[in-house]
């Protein structure tokens, strides 16, 4: 069986061959899941996206631990609906932000009631962070392919 990985950088570029210089065949956004088809290389994996595109991805941009991938697959998600969302360690614009996630990225919804106008979230590798409430909306139905469903059941 092949394994799954979750994207942990804002945009993971899939390459035609395993080199940063190679042409980008597709981009996968933060929090999305890919299927690892070939992991024989040290720093790269040949992956397939949820919508069927393939390419080489840098392993440094993926969470591969099975427990973390399984937890993420079951988590309730929010999708970033603004063109970009800054992620803060503490709610409030004056605080330093950790990263900026592009539109379409997935984050985990944390039930905690943050201060007005803010939503507490969890990232793929864990930890609690904050985004502006207006930046994300619930994922209505996350497309999980039958193959992925099977892989998750096997584990």
Helix-strand blueprint:
Blueprint: E1 3-7, E2 11-15, E3 24-29, E4 33-38, E5 44-49, E6 54-58, E7 62-63, H1 66-74, E8 77-80, E9 84-88, E10 97-102, E11 106-109, E12 118-123, E13 126-132, E14 136-138, H2 146-154
Antiparallel strand pairs: 1-4, 1-7, 2-3, 4-5, 5-6, 8-11, 8-14, 9-10, 11-12, 12-13
Give a written overview of the molecule.
Helix content is 12%, strand content 45%. The protein has 155 residues and is mainly beta. Strands 6-5-4-1-7 form a 5-stranded antiparallel sheet. The chain has a 5-stranded antiparallel sheet with strand order 13-12-11-8-14, with no helix packed on it. It has a two-stranded antiparallel ribbon with strand order 2-3. A hairpin with a 2-residue loop joins strand 12 and strand 13 (126-132). The longest helix is centred in the middle third of the chain and has 9 residues, at 66-74. The N and C termini lie close together (10 Å).
């Amino acid at each position: 069986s092949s394994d799954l990985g979750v994207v942990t950088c804002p945009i993971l570029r899939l390459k035609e061959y395993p080199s940063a210089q190679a042409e980008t065949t597709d981009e996968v956004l933060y929090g999305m899941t890919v299927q690892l088809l070939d992991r024989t290389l040290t720093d790269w994996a040949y992956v397939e996206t949820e919508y069927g595109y393939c390419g080489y991805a840098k392993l440094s941009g993926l969470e591969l631990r099975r427990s973390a991938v399984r937890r993420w697959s079951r988590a309730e998600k929010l999708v970033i609906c603004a063109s970009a969302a800054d992620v803060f360690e503490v709610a409030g614009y004056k605080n330093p932000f950790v990263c900026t996630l592009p539109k379409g990225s997935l984050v985990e919804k944390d039930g905690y009631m943050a201060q007005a106008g803010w939503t507490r979230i969890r990232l793929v590798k864990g930890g609690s962070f904050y985004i502006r409430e207006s930046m994300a909306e619930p994922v209505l139905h996350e497309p999980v392919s039958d193959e992925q469903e099977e892989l998750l059941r096997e584990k």
